[in-house]
């Protein structure tokens, strides 16, 4: 996601017009009225100082996230630039270039200074102008938010897109820290999902080369390839395959594609892209209730559906090359370039700079240096007998060297089969002792039995009733998976 260029202009307009909900504040259950925080960004210093004085009188460290949300959209103090020679300066007779301010200070910079100074005073910290350092300090504190924090967030982000307010009604329920929900730089559905996109038979997809990356999905006896070069521009596809309604979510920041069944308890839920992030992972929303859903787990985390028990069913996906997928599934269909959108769908064009280095676009509470941030891992999320989640990550490089890998996890015995081109599939091995690969499509067991690799299961060649069912898994960047599941078990 890219940050919109008009952010500061929008904030400046907001400052000039008066902050949202700027009525006379009153105390609320021992907390300052949330409108005081909006008054704290008033360009009238007396108004702002009076608001901050009232906030300070009831201060809790849990309010720091609100201050950060405000500061995050202000322009920080400018840095000196190397200006042209000043020929009239007697201290510079040679007329050489000088360090000088190259443009007038933005009005919101005064607000930035005021809020950062206030945050340092209340926290007892010295952030030295580093808002990322401030963010990390906030995340290190116990979560004790203002009861109207969600409402504040919706009203503030509504200055960018009024639809953001729909996600955060007053007293909104949330399973995640609201100070970890960040704006991803686009409006609601600003990265447009593909809705039942056009597709082609494999033989007509002349635009694809054999080494192009695709995400392969099978359902109801049908297969379809979703090229990375297309999906990276849209980050979500609503599709129908083999009679199954699917929501295919691609978080480019986390490097993961997850297909979900769109029907839950008989209800077809239609999803969109919220434009918001949680720990650098996109949050999607359902159009019916405007609840926000965690895309790694397929559960609602903010909104009226929290606690409803709704959970999306995770389908299997494989990341592979077009050549390998087509050879395994010559009958496959694949997305057409005729998406209804004007994009450069060339291989590797979308997010080229982001994928080319190990830097993050958005900070997260914690990183783990056992792998580089964007090293790819195969990830599985299982529940044990008690219903506790058991996250697992296996380094993709490790699997390339161990193409048949058995892993005990969450009370199950998993078999990971990796093709010569690096495609990973996970199966529930049960009690069968699988020993080695024969090519890419056959696994041999200890008794000499041959099992065919398919998208649904490993199938015994002479007794098709014997099957090792597929286990839903996908690839992800290590930092993205770890930030969501720091308790994960890593194999590398």
How far apart are the termini?
Answer: 30 Å
Q: Count the E strands.
A: 30
Low-confidence stretches: 1-9, 82-99
How much β-strand is present in the residues?
A: 25-35%
Backbone structural class? alpha+beta
Please describe what this structure looks like.
41% of the residues are buried. Strands 3-13-14-15-16 form a five-stranded antiparallel beta sheet, with no helix packed on it. A five-stranded mixed beta sheet has the order 5-18-7-6-17. Strands 24-25-26-27-28 form a five-stranded antiparallel beta sheet, with no helix packed on it. The chain is 21% helix and 28% strand. The protein is an alpha+beta fold and 492 residues long. A hairpin with a 3-residue loop joins strand 26 (450-453) and strand 27 (457-460). The longest helix has 17 residues, at 107-123. Helix 4 (64-71) packs antiparallel against helix 5 and helix 4 runs antiparallel to helix 6 (131-140). The protein is elongated, with a radius of gyration of 26 Å. The model is unreliable at 1-9 and 82-99 (pLDDT under 50). The chain is built from twelve helices and 30 strands. It folds into three domains: 7-81 and 104-172, no CATH class; 194-354, no CATH class; 372-491, Rieske Iron-sulfur Protein (3-layer Sandwich), CATH 2.102.10.
